């Protein structure tokens, strides 16, 4: 399964997914003679499990590929050939198709939600500005338990991470193959925006933190909000949600917040200093990477779902992937594909 995933992901550096699917169909239908009317069932039983394994991995891990009508056409043709020979395979094919449709529907609904959020964000800012100060509700009024807010932030993080397809990282970093006269493999393909939406979520959380801190008029109220977010950040660290942790720290380090010297003088900053030390960028985020390894080890031996949670600082993850991609050539000097 690891090989199938790696192959399906890296192959798109050199060809369109629909081209790969067309080749798979050709090999199965023509070379394996699945198009012959009197096909022996033994022949189907010989290749069907492997084809179903490939298609199952493909549809589950890369469902966005099947938004392309050419992909769906080839998929339907191939599974119909397999299903025609055996009742067991017919049920498996039906289940595969239902799961794919369900996943594509869920993805479309999620993208509609993101679109609504983006469309209404400007209106929310306008409403916030026009509301009288007396009826505005701060974050502590809405949720006075730092642990509960940290949990909710983690739920949001996990949901948004779940919708990012592995191919989106390829889309973000792919460059035109110098040996390919055609345009990039993603030139005519609809790109998904889940990766960008997740990065935008980080920015929104940072601005939310800064806004909530700056909204109160009195210094003691601002100090209370700062201490509240310090506790939320600490709970995020304990959970293993490093992305929300960094977003909160970033919000508290924004200039409108950091320049509130008299407010900070009223804050007990010991816990905040510890958190900042953990996310210190020096040494290429050495402290954070050490904590991340510890969280990953805890996750591998966890006995509860909460202990299994590890959400990395996403912007740094993107940076690491980018430089890994840049340091590894797609092709060797002789023009062969680099498999190392």
Automatic annotation (TrEMBL):
Residues 145-340 form the Ras-GEF domain. The keyword Flavoprotein does not apply. Keywords: Guanine-nucleotide releasing factor. One of its GO terms (molecular function) is guanyl-nucleotide exchange factor activity. SMART domains: RasGEF (SM00147). Residues 1-105 form the N-terminal Ras-GEF domain. One of its GO terms (cellular component) is plasma membrane. InterPro entries: Ras-like_GEF (IPR008937), Ras-like_Gua-exchang_fac_N (IPR000651), Ras_GEF_dom_sf (IPR023578), RASGEF_cat_dom (IPR001895), RASGEF_cat_dom_sf (IPR036964). One of its GO terms (biological process) is Ras protein signal transduction. This is RGF1B protein. The lineage of its organism: Eukaryota, Metazoa, Chordata, Craniata, Vertebrata. The gene is Rasgef1b.
